[in-house]
Write a structure and sequence with these properties.
By secondary structure, chain A is an all-alpha fold. Helices cover 74% and strands 1% of the residues of chain A. The longest helix of chain A has 34 residues. Classes of the chains: A mainly alpha (498), B mainly alpha (160).
């Protein structure tokens, strides 16, 4: 009953006309940005942050949450129509979505993606409502040692689950933490790594890094690959209607993948990409016609789409209840919240119930928007894919500039943006994952503070991190998440040689 | 002497960086009152961890994904200024120039010039459409930021 009352309170906030407008704008903008190949939810969120500066935190998060799941949904459109996923979480959708489009069934695939996203999103919000308050009750007992261990786990999980080199992921994470400690140390007043310039005394804002590493680096990368090349011919969309038999066929996969996706999203480091692949492979294994997966099977579109939207909602659990983001995308969301003056964590349910329940209620509305607005509008929205690439690249640059300058009013930050853009390009070219860097950048400051507070409480005794059972368990899991892939590699090599 | 592979080159650069970082970490002044953890500890830990990771990277065999893939474009067939790397360099220079002149000539003029100029440079030849879209988007952003969100953007040579 409590949850119901809280949800009603949340709806009271989410149904304010201005917040309904923000949900709409967020979902719509997210859909469009997510659709553009290369620009994922992180870029979408980073580009939208400047708009949320002056907003009330609940409205700001409502808009950002809309951008997030809108971007995941938008990514499926380019996956299906162009076989060029705008978002990593929709790669699995292209396996069957694109073959369907080639068979002239693009409209059907897009409709399935919309329905599956809606159901996946809605089911996972119910889970979010149930799980988040429980977890925040547990998290209230966390001290600085537990928080430090939790953040270490969050970082190692993101690194170990990345498809790139483990060592390079860790290097990216360490560099992210290094960037986070630039400026005045708030505990002692000591200046660190400011190179004598006053511009760096307050540190480097995460938005400069996020826009540089993701959006600007993506522009550079597209230029390097030939400026986007020739525009790809887009498949015709066709009818959006589904038969009763088809609805029946996808109902099971959508339900199962929604639950699976949610719990994958809750885990640190997992999220929409892994959720969608797990959903896809689970359905492929369960289906009687599993051999037709990859050739245009409708279940192959429904499962990953339900899973990625559910995972997207699931990833809000650690963010809202523990204040620890489990992915690069939620790290950017955390950064946005901090800019707005809200610190997510177990106390948020008590201190800022308007933000917590307002966002949850807005997700229901956002999912309805996704379905009702986007479904009939898809044929028109998809025309954005025909936008000339040179024009698009220039406009992304302008968005990056205004995002950075509008926040700091500092020309120095524009040069920093350029520097991070080139760093991001280098990372991309040499196989360094960018998500650990941005996550570490956001977590670095809090991590150092937790570590120092824990050591201050223990009088400098480092065993405090292993004396506490929760902290010890989290650190063991963090260690295992890094060492298991290595052990697996060694075992495979030994087996191969013997 | 065997040639170094990509990862080994990267490892050397990162090792040099981490050593420089450590040198600076050892120069961080101590807090006057004794504390269990001072400002220099975390940077020192980070520096040594990065150095260790550089060593591991040196020993790691690079995979195809770790080496920049050649572009599909036949670079020799296009003029130097339009080659992929030239585009990155010219775009970077354009951003640097934009940052340098933003305050003096104003957001609207500088941003429109940047957007129009780069779109033209990237090969889009419908100049009227280019100008209309560049100016339209920049003006819309400018008005939203200044009039709706009360964020100041430099006016420069324009009166408003």
């Amino acid at each position: 009953m409590d949850a119901f009352n809280n949800l009603m309170y949340g709806f009271g906030i989410a149904l304010e006309p201005i917040n309904i407008l923000y949900v709409f704008v967020g979902v719509f903008a997210g859909t469009i940005i997510g659709m553009l190949p290369g620009l994922g939810p992180i870029s979408a969120l980073a580009l939208m942050i400047p708009i949320t500066f002056a907003m009330d935190p609940s409205s700001g998060l409502i808009l950002m949450a809309g951008v997030y799941y809108g971007a995941i949904f938008g990514g499926s459109t380019s996956s299906i129509l162009l076989n060029a996923p705008g978002v990593a979480g929709t790669v699995a959708t292209s396996f069957d979505g694109y073959p369907m489009a080639k068979q002239g069934l693009a409209g059907k695939a897009l409709a399935i993606a919309a329905y599956a996203s809606f159901v996946g999103g809605t089911i996972s919000i119910v889970f979010l409502m149930m799980v988040a308050p429980l977890l925040s009750k547990v998290a209230v007992s966390f001290g600085p040692a537990e928080y430090f261990a939790l953040m270490v786990l969050g970082l190692t999980a993101v690194v170990s689950l990345s498809d790139k080199s483990l060592v390079k992921g860790l290097i990216a994470a360490v560099i992210g933490v290094m960037i986070s400690i630039i400026g005045i140390d708030l505990q002692t007043g000591t200046v660190r790594y400011a190179f004598g310039t006053a511009h760096l005394l307050d540190g480097i804002d995460f938005l400069v890094v996020a826009l540089g590493i993701f959006a600007l680096a993506e522009v550079f990368y597209i230029l390097l690959r030939g400026g986007g090349g020739k525009e790809q011919p887009r498949n015709v969309i066709g009818s959006l209607k589904l038969s009763r038999g088809e609805v029946k066929e996808i109902a099971g996969p959508i339900g199962r993948s929604s639950v699976l996706g949610f719990f994958t999203g809750v885990l640190p480091g997992a999220g929409a990409t892994i959720g969608s692949f797990l959903g896809y492979s689970m359905e492929k294994r369960l289906a009687k016609d599993g051999d037709t997966f990859g050739k245009g099977n409708i279940k192959g579109v429904a499962a990953p789409e339900a899973a990625n939207n559910a995972a997207c909602t699931g990833s809000f659990v650690p963010l809202l209840t523990l204040g620890v983001p489990g992915s690069g995308t939620t790290a950017v969301l955390l950064g946005a919240l901090l800019v707005m003056g809200v610190t997510p964590g177990p106390a948020m349910l008590v201190d800022r119930p308007d933000v917590f329940w307002g966002v949850i209620a807005s997700m229901y509305i956002g999912n309805i928007f996704l379905l009702v607005l986007n479904l009939p509008l898809i044929p028109f929205i998809a025309r954005i894919l025909d936008m000339p690439r040179p024009l698009l690249l220039s406009l992304i640059l302008i968005f990056c500039m205004i995002g950075v300058y509008g926040m700091s009013f500092s020309v120095f930050d524009l040069f920093l943006l350029l520097g991070f853009g080139l760093l991001g390009l280098g990372m991309r070219l040499f196989g360094f994952p960018a998500a650990p860097l941005i996550l570490a950048l956001i977590l670095g400051g809090i991590m150092e503070e937790s570590m120092r507070r824990a050591l201050q409480i223990s009088g400098g005794d480092w065993s405090t991190f292993i004396d506490k059972p929760i902290s010890l368990t989290l650190l063991i899991i963090a260690g295992l998440s890094l060492t298991l892939p290595l052990v697996k590699k060694v075992v495979v090599r030994v087996r191969a040689t013997s | 002497m065997t040639r170094l592979n990509t990862n080994q080159w990267l490892a050397l650069v990162i090792a040099l960086f981490s050593m420089g970082y450590l040198v600076m970490a050892y120069q961080i002044p101590s807090f006057p009152l004794p504390r269990p953890v001072d400002s220099d500890l975390f940077p020192k830990v980070l520096g040594f961890v990065l150095l260790g990771l550089a060593l591991l990277l040196f020993l790691e065999q690079p995979k195809a994904r770790d080496v920049p893939q050649p572009s599909d474009v036949d670079e020799q067939a296009i003029p130097l200024l339009l080659r992929p790397w030239s585009r990155v360099v010219v775009t970077s220079l354009a951003i640097a120039v934009y940052a340098a002149i933003l305050v003096s000539i104003g957001f609207v003029v500088a941003s429109t010039l940047l957007s129009f100029g780069l779109t033209w440079y990237y090969g889009y030849r419908r100049h009227v459409v280019n100008l209309a879209v560049s100016l339209g988007v920049v003006l819309a952003l400018y008005l939203t930021m200044t009039k709706v969100m009360n964020v100041y953007l430099p006016t420069g040579i324009l009166p408003i």
